[in-house]
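Dear colleague,

Following up on yesterday's call, I've attached the two folding results inline so they're easy to grep. Please treat them as preliminary; we haven't cross-checked anything against experimental data yet. The first protein's sequence and structure tokens come first.
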Amino acid sequence: MKRHAALAALLTCAMGLPMMVFYALGVLGPQLIADLHIDREHLGWLTTSAFGLAALLSPWAGALVQRIGSRTGLLALFLLVALSFSLMAVLPGFTGVVIALLFCGVAQALANPATNQAIAQAKDAPRAALVGLKQAGVQLSALIAGLGLPVLSAAIGWRLALACWVPLALLLAVLVPGRIAAPAAGPRPPLRLTAPNGWLLRLMGIQGCAGLCLSAFITFFGVYASSLGVGAATIGLMVSGFGLMGILSRLLLTPLGAGLKDETVLLGGLFLVGLGTVLVMQYAAADRHWPLWFAVVGMGLSLVASNAVAMSMLLREPRFGGVASSAGMLSLGFFGGIAVGPPLFGVLLRQPGGFSAAWTLLIFALCLGAALCRNLYRARRAEETHPHAGTA
């Protein structure tokens, strides 16, 4: 693993930087609402602007990375992140932020196919470990956002706080050619979509439920905690706790899942733990904040790992399809869930029950995700028993 340390670090950053804005919305949500003069229900549309585009582009991104190679894909990713964060510093108003986030959405679409293909092409690489490390980059960005953004935004404003990441993105773009091999000479594969098979469709549905829950949770967590009297610095620490637990869960559970005969069992368990976490969180009150800490730790240790486990399944099992194309389709499911979660949550938030009504969305999605895991598990057992039954 030591000789792949530089590759692991680069891929970890490739996964983490495009997601920084996702956690920034959770940490800086109250400030954004005040500065942009928007209602709290509209905060979710900022998440949708980035991840809606990422979802639409993800199937094409997988095919594009197969054609242009992981080196060019990662180079484009870092440059797009730098452009997005630069625009957020200068474009005014709510519309300006939405436009800036669109470029980050393109980078998010490239992230999984480019990093997965880089791992698949690395010689003698410990694939499950690398997938766990690079997926942990998503939660590393949550940890850094929670610790750094409240301090930076208090000192220089939220726009310049986000612009601080531009130099890092540019530096990483410079490092890509030295760490990622150029694509082999020869004919390039055509830029076309491959329709997902039944196995991949099930996994996409599972990841859609996970994305919906995670996006609604993180986007509105800061606003929810603030409504219960939690200060900005403490909210940042809570989001950092979410990120730290997410890092641990991805590093520990991805290799654990790879050692199981069927990772679907682990996926279903993660959804059930997440369900229990959301139920406990609703006991939070103005004089009782421990359920909020329980929530960030529980979600970080459970549902966050689901995407890494699912990506590891793609690398292990040919039944899901080609590495880059299946990663793009799986990202379509995950990012699609992320895109629709916050607006739906916002609609429920306007109902008489407020947050109590809105959290029911997560409860429903977690139950549905667990049911889909059970369906995938049963389908795989049926295929092993009757190999020619055509379950996929």
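Below is the second protein, in the same order (sequence, then structure):
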Amino acid sequence: MTDTALIVVAAGSGTRLGRGVPKAFAEIAGATILEHALRGLAAVDAAFVIVVPAGHEADASAIAERAGLVATVVAGGEARADSVAAGLAAAGDARWVLVHDAARALAPAALVERVIAALRDGAGAVVPVLPVVDTIREADAAGLGAIVDRAALRAMQTPQGFEAALLRRAYETAGDARGASTDDAQLVQAVGEQVVPVAGDELAFKITTPADAERAESLLARKEPGMREVADIRTGIGVDVHGFGGEGPLRLAGIEWEGVGLVGHSDGDAVCHAIVDALLGAAGLGDIGGLVGVDDPQHAGAHGEVFVRAAVALLAEHGWAPVNVSVQVLGVRPRIGTRREEAQAVLTAMLGAPVSVSGTTTDGLGAIGRGEGVQAIATALIRRRPTPVAE
């Protein structure tokens, strides 16, 4: 039985990443960030505890199973320190505890082993660090100040390792002040304990922004351990048109607008329906009619989100994942620009990948130009998920 617990903190909102889902559940290179992180750590001899946003526990358990792990999954809190505390509570009587950010999804197992080795050699707290290579200046409201000597600076990484009793004492001592902390080693230092550095790893960078995600995806595409390299990218186009005059409210792009609803067996959301056809067409899986039926009673009045999520699930069953979707809405009303960001956020959350929305008119030409309905044209980019290499 292992004496080490590895707490994987995956409760971040991912606002700066801009995928519309909690960061750890955003997909890069055909799998979630959390799955990549767990897959890279699967060989570590530790009891895994995964901390996720409330409501995502079942998803995290399934992801851990795909990564080949048995893990305890618990809900985190609003602040990172609250999430770590929840992980500590689930770590049981482990002698040593490692705290790792799921966002450092490419961190290799060798890095973790260095931290564990230092703990077993007698250190009470261990952090992986890298030298700072950029020129750093002080700054204030007046502008830039003096250059800071970077030779004395180190960039902190995770996993950070601790004697479990020491980390618990640091959290108890910090009390309410722990909420402002983003670094567990800082709390340990605050109780007078020394923190031992070990060599970090360039691959353990934190995925925070879209640029970070692109970097990670590029590295994963070159070589993913135990996976076949796949560069299978496909595109699809979906078109849908619905006229005004429906009995329900006007729903378009996953949100409700003022005005007369669109005619349709479901809610008539032409944007969602076009996205579905674009996704299915790209994967060669038919169209929305074949997916849910055009007159199935159970889908009477159903929101477009139901169909989008069903399409994403069907793609996953066949080894595909959305990369992004762009939608052009043609019509006199509603004016898409007034709620563009809201629509994009809602659709991105449905898809688990970025969705952009734009609107235009037809200069009064045709039924759409006369304001009789709305047309949507969607273009989808999908990629095949990596598949295990046959032995």
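For the second protein, one point worth flagging: The longest strand covers residues 233-252.

Best wishes,
A.L.
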